[in-house]
Structures are given as structure tokens and as C-alpha cells.
Amino acid sequence: MAHTNHTQRLARTEEALTVLFCLVDDAYYALLNPDGRRYEPLKRLSDSEVITLALLQQLRGVESERSFLRDAERFFSHLFPGVVGLAPSSFHRRVRKLRRFLEPLRRTVLEDLVGDPETLLVDSTLLAVLHPRQVAQSAGFPGAAWVRWGSFSVYGVKLHFLCATNGVPLCYELTPANVAEVRLTEELLAEANLPDGLARRLLGDLAYRSEALGHALAECGISLVTERADQRGERQRIEIALSSLKRVFGLGWTLARTLVGLATRIAAKIAAYTYAFHVNRLLGRPQGCIKELWA
């Protein structure tokens, strides 16, 4: 019985992985890199296969490339023959080279997932990159900074996050940990590139309470709401999204050693999270049931 359940679960994962690859392959070559197929015969894995595997790594919650490639060779080599014998360093270099396509690919499915939202949610979370004892013993981490968090001091970066009420990320920014939330709010809204002409609400916690920010957003037709009583529990959805990214995708425990590596992993995690919503919708599954399908 256990073997039967394992086989059925693996079959569902293969179906979802096939859908994911088709979405990535179509968008990558049709919209982002039309000339990309020119050198594909010379490559062990195509660019779209590498991107799909990078997303699969995050969906399965495996940080180590070596461990992930071992699992991929064992379970999915019939779908990706080029993964057999692939060195982790080669896979790592290909993913870093293709990292600039992760966010544009993610944005190709956003409209189907969120449409034109009237209510937006904004929040931020701290990501520690080095233990405090390691900071004194090393040259530090470029792009990171110290910040006071309650009774603790954290050395790391801050992820600023804007999403719709269904939990789908619209855009995000990575800054040193000591950058205030209000400084990134307008930049996040501009990056979201939402159409004009629709009155919107932006729900944030008390860190976003600012008279200057409220006036600036009001001129754009956006009402800033920071009082919890006026949010009717809607802002909890972004807290759930950030919690899922940390718990399922390991957002707070990456193995990155450089700022580029950290940014690449965060982009892959958020892209995988967004595509997981889209794949679930296409397969008629509950939108938020991610771990059960890909683990």
C-alpha cells in the first residue's frame, strides 16, 4: 500500500512538472529569448530545462544542489535525461547565468493569477545571512547590515514584499536590513506597474504609518491603511505568504555565500511559489496546497 501511494504521488508530481516545464518553455522562447534555441543542440540541458529544474529544486525545498541533482537523477531522469551525471557546479553556473529571466518569467503568469487588484498588501521580513559570531570572523556579507529586532541584533538583509489578497506576490525588493519600510513602498508600487484609474487600498502594519507616504499615495489614488481594526483581517494573507516562503521554501535558510547567490535563490523561490499557484489552478487543485504536490 505504501508503494502504491508513493507511485501515485510521484505520478502527480510528474504531471505538475510537465505543466511547469511547458509554461516555462513557451514563455522563455516566445517572449523572453526568441533566439535561445539556436545553440540548444550544443547544450546538455536546454535553458528552459535548467530554469524548470531550478524551480523544482525550490518547490521540493532542497537547498543543496548536490542533494537535489541526486534526487532529480533518481526520480526525473526520464523527463530530463541531461541531468544524469550533471555536476552541481555546472548546474549552479547555468542557474546564475539565467537568473535575469526568473522574474520576467514569473510576471508572465501574474495577470492570470491576480488580474487588476483593488486591495494590495505590503510587508517586509528580515533574513539573517550570517550568525553574529561569524561577522566578526569574516569580511562580512556585501549588501547586509545590522538592525535591532526586539531584544536581538540581526545581521542580514530585508525583503520588501507586495502581494494581492490571494497571496500571490506582485513584486519585491531586497535591501540592507536597516532600510526603513516606508522608503521602498512607492518603488514597489511603481514596479508593480498597475493600471491607472482604479481606486486602491494599500494595507500595511504600523511600520508603514507615515503622513508623507499617505499624502504621496493619495495623489496616485491609493489609500494607505495601517490600523489593524480597519483591515478586517485581510493583511494576514501576506503574513501567511511570507510564512510559507520561509517554512516550505526555506527563504530564511539559504546556503548563499554572496549577494548575487542570495538574490538568485530568492528570485527562484518567489518564482517557484508563484508558478505553484498557477500550476495548481491549471490542474484544478486548491491554490495553496503546494508542499503535498511537490515533496
What's the arrangement of secondary structure elements?
Layout: H1 2-32, H2 47-59, H3 65-75, H4 88-97, H5 102-107, H6 110-114, E1 119-128, H7 132-136, E2 145-149, E3 152-164, E4 169-176, H8 182-192, E5 200-203, H9 211-218, E6 222-225, H10 236-247, H11 259-282, H12 291-294
Parallel strand pairs: 1-5, 5-6
Antiparallel strand pairs: 1-3, 2-3, 3-4
Helix pairs in contact: 1-2, 2-11
Could you explain how this protein is built, in words?
The protein is an alpha/beta fold. The chain folds into two domains: 106 residues; 137 residues, Nucleotidyltransferase, domain 5 (2-Layer Sandwich), CATH 3.30.420. The chain is built from twelve helices and six strands. Strands 1, 2, 3, 4, 5 and 6 form a six-stranded mixed β-sheet that branches. The chain is globular and about 55 Å long.
Task: Spell out the key features of this protein.
single chain; 295 residues; alpha/beta; Nucleotidyltransferase, domain 5; six-stranded mixed beta sheet; 12 helices; Transposase_11; Transposase IS4-like domain-containing protein; transposase activity; DNA binding
In short:
By secondary structure, this protein is of the alpha/beta class. Helices cover about 45% and strands about 15% of the residues. Helix 1 (about 1-30) crosses helix 2 (about 45-60).
